[in-house]
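Thanks for the sequence, V.! I ran DUF916 domain-containing protein right away. Repeating your input here for the record:
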Amino acid sequence: MNQRTKRGAVWASAVLISSFLAFGSAASAFAADDDGLGLEVTVTTPTPVASPAPTPTPTSTTKPPTNTPNPSGPPAPGGSNNGGGGNGGGNGGGSGSGGAGSGGSGSGGPAATGDEVSIGGALFLSGLKSTYHPSFNPFDGTLTLEFTVRNVTNETITGSAHFWANGVFGNELADHDALAVADIAPGETRTVQTELPHIGQWIFVNANATFTPPGSVGGVTLEPVTRNAFVPIFPWFLVIIVLIAAAAVVIVRILSPQGAPVPQAAE
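Predicted structure:
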């Protein structure tokens, strides 16, 4: 056992001495060579990247137009006089056309007013107006109808009028024909009126009037014109009959005995 221990101590001493010798050789070699291990370290500095500069927006600049006179030679003899004459003629023509326009607008003639209608541009006929006058007789009454005729010519005009009225069922109630409308002076407005009798309380009546002018005035052919009017008529007689009947029913109900005993049959 002691012999093995001695051999191990010897081997350990030898290994330790060899290690020291190897370390010393390496240290002396490193001291002799300044380059050491020969490693090169390169330090790279990053290059700064420039940010893109903003692109300028093109702007357009409009310069005011410059009138550059064109060089011209001396006017030819008589050239100035001809140019002046041309300008004068152009201005005169423009003024003349404006005058013609004003004259055209002034020749429009009279126009219809209100509910009037034109008869060939010579006469103007108004709408038909009506007034009802009731009577105690439900089958009687008077209907007043009227219209106006306006003469816008320079001539005296004579015509005629026809009035009539129809009932609810289209039946003719009254008629007034061939009413003369004589000597309507230039610029005059004539009122034509009539009364139609025997107009009962038909709830409503359709009134009509036709004006017949002369065949022509100033070379213009004229035609008859008809105007109409819806005339409501309150049925007083019918309303009174209904009220009387209703009152009679109420009176009978009031006067009739209430709860009267019902007779029973004898056993």
